[in-house]
Amino acid sequence: MVKQFSLLLCCLFTIIAHSQTNYTEISLPELMKKKKQGESNMVIVDVRSKGEYHDTVSRGKQSNIGRIKGAINVTLQDLQQNPEAVKQLEAYKDKDIYLICSHSYRSRSASRILLNNGFTHVNNVQGGMTEWYRRYDELAPYRDQLERDDIVYNNISPEEVLDQLSAGKKVMILGIRNTPKFWYDSFNLKLYRYYPIPKNTVYYYYADSLKILDDVRKEKPQSVVLFNLVNNSAAELAEWLTQKGISNVSYLVGGDNLYYE
Q1: What value, to the nearest 5°, has the Cα angle with vertex 184 and ends 181 and 188?
Q2: What gap in Å lies between CA 212 and CA 36, rounded to an integer?
Q3: Considering only 1-10, 52-61, 171-180, which range has the smallest mean pLDDT?
Q4: What is the pTM of this model?
Q5: Residue 27 maps to which CATH number?
Q6: Is 94 helix (H, G, I), strand (E, B) or coil?
C-alpha cells in the first residue's frame, strides 16, 4: 500500500513538473479562432524585432509581412538581455500568453525564457507569421486581423498566385538569385533544377534589375510575382519595380519553401 502511494505521488509530481517546464503548441488558425471568439484571458506577444513588427526592415524586406492586430511587441533580444522586458509581461502572468515570431524559432526561445521566470500559461504559435501565407485559405476568415504598414508592393501566397493563373491572368513569375561568388553558390543553383519550380518562371540575377524592368515593360503582365532563389532580394526588387511605375507587383512570402507547380 505504501509502495503504491509513493508511486502515485511520484507520478503526480512528474505531471506537475512537466506542466511547469513545457509550453503548449498552438496553430495560428486555432489562435485566431480564439481571438475572433473574443476570448479575453489571453495576450499575443510578438517577439520579432521592432522593424519586423512595424514593417520597417530596410535590409531584408522579406521580413515585412505584417502583424496581428492587438499583439504587443517584446523582442526576443530584450527578453534575453533586459530583465525589465520580462517584468513588462508580469501583468499578463495569469493570462494565456501566445508567443509568435516569423517561423516559430524565436518564439520557442522566448517561451522557455518565460517558463524559467515562473510563467505557467505559455503557448508557442507554430509556424509563426508566415502561416498567414502558407495556410492562406484556412486563415481567410481572419484576414481583417492582419495589420500591415505602408509597404508599396504586395505580399502574396502560393494559393493567390494559383488563383490568378487559374483565372487566366497573365502572370510574370520571376525567380531572383545573386550572381555566384563562391563555389557553393553555383552548386546551389544546379540543385534548384530539381526543385518543383513554378511553371513559366523566368530567372534573373539581382544585379540585372534594369533588364528586369525592361522585360516587364515589354511583357505588360497583369501581375508580377517575385520570389527568392539563393538570395533574399526579391522583396527589395518588388519595391523597386513598384517605385518605377510597375503595377500589381507582389513578393511570394516563403520563397523556395513554398514552391508549387
Answers
A1: 105
A2: 42
A3: 1-10
A4: 0.83
A5: 3.40.250.10
A6: coil
- Domain containing 252: what range? 152-258
* Domain membership flag for residue 202: yes
Q: Which residue has the higher pLDDT, 87 or 185?
A: 87
Task: Identify the three-state secondary structure at position 192.
Answer: helix
54 DSSP 8-state letter? T
* Cα 113 from Cα 82, distance rounded (Å): 12
Return mean pLDDT, the chain: 87
Greatest extent of the chain over all pairs of C-alpha atoms, in Å: 86
- Alpha helix ranges (H) inside 65-182: 76-81, 83-88, 105-116, 131-134, 136-139, 158-166
Is the Cβ–Cβ distance between 196 and 222 less than 8 Å?
no
Alpha-carbon gap, residue 97 to 23, rounded angstroms: 10
Residues 223 and 253 in one domain: yes
Residue 12 lies in a domain: no
125 with 159, same domain: the answer is no
SS3 (DSSP) at 23: coil
Residues in the chain: 261
d(CA 67, CA 163): 24
Mean pLDDT of 193-222: 88
Quick: pLDDT tens for 162-190: 999 999 999 999 999 876 666 556 666 56
Question: In terms of C-beta density within 10 A (0-12 exposed, 13-18 middle, 19 or more buried), how is residue 72 classed?
Answer: middle
**H, E, C per residue of 215-248:** HHHHHCCCEEEEEECCCCCHHHHHHHHHHCCCCC
- Residue type for 94, please? D
Task: Tell whether the model's pLDDT for residue 114 goes beyond 50.
Answer: yes
Q: Last residue of some domain: 112, 147, 182?
A: 147
Last residue of a domain, one of 97, 127, 147: 147
